[in-house]
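U., I forgot to send this yesterday:
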Amino acid sequence: MPNFFSAFTTDVFRPIATILIPGAIAISTWFIGLVWHFAAIRDLTSNHTETSLVLLLAMIFGGMVVEDVGSTYEGQLDNIAKDGTHGKHEEEWDRYLRLVFKDSPVGRRYLGSLVLRLKFELGIAFSMLSAALGLIWLLYLGLNGMTFAWTALVCVGFIVWGLSEARKTHLLLARTRHNLLKSGDVVAAP
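Result:
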């Protein structure tokens, strides 16, 4: 019997978590504004197949832009870490990139999950920023003030959460890379 959950490998889950979900959030309020403001676009949405394809492409594009902005912010976090107390952040990052593993240490898989988490946190933060900017347009188009306030508050909350967690995850990534660069113990399989 086929395992349904085997489809959710890292290769499939990574783009969903780092591109599609942030992309959907980033374009959501803008799409609502387009449908709300332009009758011609509202009429086009009755054709579900074409609308779905255009939305998917817009989500991918938005997700790629958000991921790029997140990578730029991650570079800023690297600069802060380089100038911080650790002082060897860039050197250790370069050493890690050149590293070849004979065996796969446990920390290597953990490092991969931390990178995915960092990309997701940054994606959520910057996609919520895009959604919040779209909310301003919706307010101009006639969105209820209370709805705007609550939705904007949710967006700001996710922005703060995403950026705060990304800083913590970035520090944890640096510490994990530092530990992986130390000579490790090799334990025989049971």
